[in-house]
Amino acid sequence: MFMKYALFPGCKIAFERPDLELAMREVLTALDVPFEYLSDFSCCPTWASVPSFDIEAWLAISARNISLAEEKGLDIVVGCGDCYSVLNHARDMLKREEWRERVNRILAKVGRVYRGTTKIYHIIHLLEERKIKKNLKHRLNGFVAGVQPGCHLLWPAKIFDAKEENPFFPERLKKLVEAMGAETPHYSRLEYCCGNHIDIVDYEKFLDFVQLKLQSLKEEIDPDFIVTACSTCFIQLDEGQKRLKRLGRIDYEIPVFHFPQLLAICLGSNPEKVARISSVDRSKIISEILEGRE
């Protein structure tokens, strides 16, 4: 890993949940992880867009994004599972000389070149439990958290530089949340997909995915809140359960946090800034976190 990182917020965080980006910035700053923001980044582009109909165009867009960090000698840090997956898949495919040459012919038209020197990390890969414990202003002792790593951070493990030892029993997010004092019991559908992208073609099937995940969490561990590594999982689980409740398919709500939001709050950031936007109300659980249970 390089000593400094290019923060890649992605389009969903930047346009739908800007408080998530602020949380990432505050966490990286508080824990002394050097980063800079490159204003020329575009969409990664997400799986449901360009990669679904034009592989060459997808690789060119991803390679352009990566080349911006390469030019500055930086690795990339993301908070979105889609971005992590798409950019890593692009890096893997661009190891093939044929694709790299085709893409660089396209990039040459805008004065750029892809070299393959920059690596892609998720923010959970850069944070140390020891440093988190040392800097906490509020601990999560007495809280039970349901962790949602997100499938795009887990598979296919062979293409990732930072990977879980066993993607069927992911530990990274679990250990970070436990470092903050919370319990993170195992539940049977831990590694299940949140239903992302299915909502585009079959919204009812998407709701089935969300309901299955929520039922597993509620019935098996009854968490105080859900913590996601992936920003898309956060949006899907937060918005999906509101729809399920309106339809009468569930009779409960579980507050959802993107991990950097929860950590930023525990490091002393203002919740009104770093955890402002959600469908499920989080004010009660945030007050309990600030007051402490033990």
TrEMBL record:
The keyword Oxidoreductase applies. Pfam families: CCG. It comes from the Archaea. Keywords: Oxidoreductase. One of its GO terms (molecular function) is oxidoreductase activity. Residues 5-87, 147-238 form the Cysteine-rich domain. The keyword Manganese does not apply. PANTHER family: COB--COM HETERODISULFIDE REDUCTASE SUBUNIT B 1. This is Heterodisulfide reductase, subunit B (HdrB). It comes from Archaeoglobus fulgidus (strain ATCC 49558 / DSM 4304 / JCM 9628 / NBRC 100126 / VC-16). The lineage of its organism: Archaea, Methanobacteriati, Methanobacteriota, Archaeoglobi, Archaeoglobales.
